[in-house]
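Hi there,

I know you've been waiting on this one. I reran it after we fixed the sequence typo, so this is the corrected version. Both the input and the resulting structure follow.
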Amino acid sequence: MGIDVSPSRGIIQQDIELILRYDNPYKNNVTYEINIHTENSTIPLSFVESVEYMRNYGKYISDFVVLKFKISLGAYSKVIYTQRDNLMCSIKKIFKDKVDSNFTTMYKMVILKDGGSMESDQTIKKLTADELDKAGMVTVEAQLYLREVEGFRSSFIDGIYKNVILKDVIIGLLAQAKNNIQVDGLPLEYNIDVYEPNNTQQYENLIIPTGITLDNLPNYLQGTDYGVYNGDIGMYIQPYNKKTTVFVYPLFNTERFNKETGYKLTFINPNTAMYDVVENNWYIDGNNIKIICNSQVKIIDNGVRSYINSGDGIVSISASNLFEQNYEITDDGILLDKDSTLEGSKIVDRRDKISKTRYIGPQSNMYKYRSELLNTSMATYQITWNFSAPDYLYPGMPVEYVYEENGVIIRLPGILQCVYSLYQKVKGTQTSVVIIKVLSYNVYISQPSS
């Protein structure tokens, strides 16, 4: 799927009017029910200030969650602090009038900040919990992470797998881990979602050497002799659709949006600030979540500069085809059959007919180099989504950025990259900053007119 350019005919305004008529159930209706769990007790948190979720689908394996709350000094010092090396935290999100959305996620918990009072004030250790409760509250910041992350990072895998395709190996090892890995004495429970690889080759012997951890499995397969996707690779563990799910997916993909049967995401830029504070700013149209953009969209688009500097194409000798004897030995030496041994990829044909194609030598894994090439053709967009519902978003989610220019609608396809969400109890809302990568319009306009 390339960039789509079509006559406007008021289509954007029709979508905006449809969205505005939809009553957003998430506006000022979000509450979090949070409990801290020790080995012997459960402590409900009545004074939650904020919960921050940072999801970077290209860099990390799971959520970075920061919880900020106030609690009585007695409960903190005598219960939480004394068991700080073995804390759990449960979060249940409650959306008014949407009972089916309620879902509880259990996290491991690490204290980040507590004002340092437990380290410096010896008096606290001498007083009872009741006496300390009368002294007031303490503000605490804690990091939360899924227990599956600990299991993935500590699980080593290796082996020789015969007559297999990559998708089966990835799914098989992830499924095997559910039975083999235990955290806190309990097996892991999660769904597995692996997007169909571009590499469908069957390998007689697929080798995973000793020392590879489960969380690094996709990167190993993508970056060594195999290659999984033409658009790089990510693996992420996230609560989704009421179940912890392990996703494996391409980071860059311009073809997935039109093929997607699950939820996909459309950002509509109305080119005006008049909708910035509108509460009814998104709507689910079938499987397409349509969102009116805040006017403060930030764009980083180095498309033309990137492919001028790094090249707009690559060419290689296929190592596997060489082994299939696509050559002839003569008295003058070895003659290669170029049609059978050369392969390459190209971003775009420029108007000025100038092309910078890099020769990268014999390669068994072209997927890695195609990924680097595709990344140079992508632009990064940062979009603020007020009164948001970020739990609909998932790793590898296909996106489309839509706007109107000079009477035509331009649709830029791409993939979700990052989500930062902030819940503030005083407002009862979630505000999200969403980062997407879409096909660069600067690259597109360098193509010859059709």
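Quick highlight: Confidence is low (pLDDT under 50) at residues 335-342, 443-450.

Best,
R. S.
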